[in-house]
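Bug #77: duplicate submission created two jobs. Keeping one. Sequence:
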Amino acid sequence: MRHLLDSKPKHWWHAHVRHLVIDVLRGGSSVNNAIRVLSKFTGIVDLVLLGNPGPALLPVLAGIPLTRLATRSDFGQLLEEEYMRVNSPAMSSLTHITLLAGGVSHDFDFGAWAGRLGCFPSLTHVALYFPWYSVPTMGQHDFFRKVLAGCAHLRVFIMIYTSGSSGLVGELANCIQQLQYLSDDTRFVLCEKDVDSMTNWVNGAEGGEDYWSRAERFIEQRRSGEIQGSNFVLSSNKQ
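Kept job's structure:
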């Protein structure tokens, strides 16, 4: 790793690396390697941060003007720390945030998370990879409404679900029923997960179709009347 990073000057990495995936374990050399990489790749705009890095990465992340970030929801809670205040490049430039399901429990504080998302001044797109059992808790905290109302420039709000088993069909129907009160807001989309998250990310990084572009097109179709406005369920792209 060190040999590879040292093979080019920092300004070269800054100019040539725009999209990056890092899988980090909390503590040890994995975190140190991630810090070393991020310290070199200061020009990235699109970051997927997997694993469980803890707060050690916050100082270096705060100096990177990311526009897109996908991360575990429990790591995302750290974005409220001093390194991610409004005056940091990462806080002020983020337009797309994807929250992965890691760290979600029955007592997860969705109310606090809605407020955190509202702190990002440029945020236009939010996606959730959350388990089904989270939906009732989200409803109790009015999480969806708070995000839609609290993010001043929000254009797309996606909840991504997985289909494929007979048991899930009933769960999906129940979820749709619970979320029906959001059908009047065309920004909210319930999207079927038909490709894995990394394939979706690569598609978007290469300029192809991803969940963001599909949801944007779906929203425009709802607004134009091509699709019934109250329909917020985006079916599989394979159909």
